[in-house]
Amino acid sequence: MNFSDINNLFTFENIILFFVLFTLLLCIYLLTKGKKKLQRRIERKNRIFQKAFDLSEDAILIFSDKNRIFYANKSMIKLFGLDEGYKHKPLRPMPKVKVKNEWLDLDMVVKSMQHRPAEDKMQIYSQVSLSVSDKKNEEIPVNLYIENSPWEESNTSWCSIVSIHDLRKEKKRISEAYRHKLTYLPNQLQALQDLNKFYAQMHLDNKKLALILLNIDNFSQLRAIVGVEQTNTILNFRT
Length: 239
Hints:
- By secondary structure, the protein is of the alpha+beta class.
- It has helices at about 5-10, 10-55, 75-80, 105-110, 165-175, 190-205, 220-225, 230-235, and strands spanning about 60-65, 70, 95-100, 100-105, 120-130, 140-150, 160-165.
- It has 3 domains: about 1-40; about 55-170, PAS domain (Beta-Lactamase, 2-Layer Sandwich); about 180-235, no CATH class.
- The chain is elongated and about 110 Å long.
């Protein structure tokens, strides 16, 4: 390579091209470094709250303003049917929430809150319907809690914390409160509730109400002899 070749190499066009390439590589490096730094920060926060979130019965999800999942506790993984490698992937299919008789994508509900004042970043949707998958066509009664929070002081990067309280569990608890735990027969609470209804109906119909109380002597001994399953069959027998 002679002097003229070196001189041709450092022409104005080549210098501009080298500068553009250098700037592009620098931007890619800074973006990659910033992304890794953000992911490390997210992982640190996840580890802090992970144990507490996993103990919660509510389904909890943290995802970015780009709809990428940062964290989901065990209840959320089960509710949304997330795969093992769900982290940093888009939330698909997008769950829908029925608000005021209108079905909205969960991400649209979340984004509608990002322009609110800082003191009003928490939104509660009580007794709304949730649809996890279009294939199931199942409306799940839930209480929905959404809180938006900036990851950075510049407020240019957001994350959303979504907590879903499944009301089906509440209905099941209420139902179980009126059932005997062992036999699942109606218990005393259910009897008192039913008697009020029966009495009111009999009073309207001008009829009488009869109540029969049965007490089986030495029932615990019978259970010890024939077993729990057989005695439960006896209790469940209805004429």
